[in-house]
Amino acid sequence: MKNEFVEALANLQENEAITIAQKMLESGTMAEEVLELAQQGVDIIGKRYENGEYFLPDLIMAGEILKEIASLVKPRLSKGATARRLGKVLIGTVEGDVHDIGKNIVSFMLEVNGFEVLDLGVDVPPAKFVEAIKEFQPQVVALSGLLTVAFDAMKDTVNAIKEAGLRDKVKIMIGGGQCNENVRQYAGADAYGKDAVEAVALAKKWIGGE
């Protein structure tokens, strides 16, 4: 059943993947294990996208399936899993950009790997990031953006965090289709994560989980 679940997710078979996830949970499979299996499926989806087998609509579909699976799994996560949280990550798509598939996959992968994640959604103004940092007190802030217009918004957000006197309290990563090292330097972020796996690795490195 576990292999079937990974395959169904990787093949974007929504109903089948969700049905198998439900059956696994009902038959006693730990919620954490279902998340680990989902991560395997996401890894395959990512590789197929990189190889040109999948396209943006496929990633959007994957994001929707993951949301459904996450809603099944989250209520069943053990208290121990919450207690083992490595740290807090604040994430959002910056102002002027409404793309969320990449952000959703990063959020999901961070949660799978033991982080407490606060997702502010899309088109998030700098002031909202600043307010959330004060309230949520994350160690890491992840700024997402697919469009080139997001670059200025990322820079504005980093500057707003600086002006609020919070810059030395958080590590900032950026990510998204058009992002690269030059954009990182322009925005004033600490690192650029090219995909969800790298985002998780950065968060672990910064928070000391690895």
Automatic annotation (TrEMBL):
E.C. code: 2.1.1.13
Enzyme class: transferase
Sample GO molecular function, one term: cobalamin binding
Gene3D superfamilies the UniProt entry points to: Cobalamin-binding domain, Methionine synthase domain
GO CC term (a single one): cytosol
Transmembrane segments: none
An individual GO BP term: tetrahydrofolate metabolic process
Family matches, as SUPFAM superfamilies: Cobalamin (vitamin B12)-binding domain (SSF52242), Methionine synthase domain (SSF47644)
Domain of life where this protein originates: Bacteria
Domain B12-binding N-terminal: 1-85
Keywords carried by this UniProt record: Cobalt, Metal-binding, Methyltransferase, Transferase
Domain annotation B12-binding: ranges: 86-210
UniProt xrefs under Pfam families: B12-binding, B12-binding_2
UniProt similarity note: Belongs to the methylamine corrinoid protein family.
PANTHER family: METHIONINE SYNTHASE (PTHR45833)
Protein name: Methionine synthase
This protein's encoding gene: metH_2
